[in-house]
């Protein structure tokens, strides 16, 4: 996401909160907010403008944005070292990534071009198209379907075979749409979503689209020390086997493993 639209998007992001407050501040306050607590601090490439992040079969993959700087990477979790990298064509702005079978699918922001890479070699296997903007992606573990965000309050459930839209989810918090849903992660029956230009992760019920609560990353964002206008919290990865949850941000020099929210920890 580029800077010229940042102010407009910030105003749009704040609009629902203003409307909510006008209708009664207690309504928004009813949703639980959990302050994220770091349990482990790991190095992260401060040159990575993080757009996508996931762990598949114990390996960490990351995508980065900005034209001329976009890439898809395999990263060593403990050291933050980039093990493998494919740069995107200089004209493309990389966005979310997701694993599917032996492939990694990747979006681009306003280019409408999706990429299919071989998971292990990063060789380009093909391309696909989609309507509108491409922001974040994650996978529903049970079906293998892709969940895609596009900057609006609507998530698309995608058939990864042909990238057709199976259905959509309208995301609301106390009845009000939550726009700017960005990087995504399916965690134990919930969709976690960074909300662009905020320090909050929305915990979304995939069936209803209702936000169940928020994870606040503000304290960890300040601890990361990357407080530039574009250096927002973005990037959530779930290690399902080890039950570890990781978060980072754009150009943050650090990635955090965070304590699981109680609702997830109980499962
Ligand atoms: Ca993710």
Properties at a glance:
single chain; 267 residues; mainly beta; Neuraminidase; four-stranded antiparallel sheet; 4 helices; globular; binds calcium ion
CATH names the topology as Neuraminidase
Bound molecules: calcium ion
Summed over residues and divided by their number, the pLDDT gives a mean of 91
Class, according to the CATH hierarchy? Mainly Beta
Describe the largest sheet.
5 strands, mixed
Low-confidence stretches at least 5 residues in length (pLDDT < 50)? 1-26
Task: Explain how this protein is built.
The chain is mostly beta strands. The protein has one domain (about 30-265): TolB, C-terminal domain (Neuraminidase, 6 Propeller). The protein has helices spanning about 5-25, 25-30, 220-225, 260-265, and strands at about 35, 40-45, 50-55, 60-65, 70-75, 80-85, 95-100, 105-110, 115-120, 125-130, 135-140, 145-150, 155-160, 165-170, 170-175, 175, 180-185, 190-195, 200-205, 210-215, 235-240, 245-250, 255-260. The strands form six sheets. A five-stranded mixed β-sheet has the order 1-20-19-18-17, with no helix packed on it. The chain has a four-stranded antiparallel β-sheet with strand order 2-23-22-21, covered by helices on one side. A four-stranded antiparallel β-sheet has the order 3-4-5-6, with no helix packed on it. The chain is globular, with a radius of gyration of 17 Å. The structure holds calcium ion. Calcium ion binds near residues 138 and 237. Calcium ion (CA) binds near residues 183 and 237.
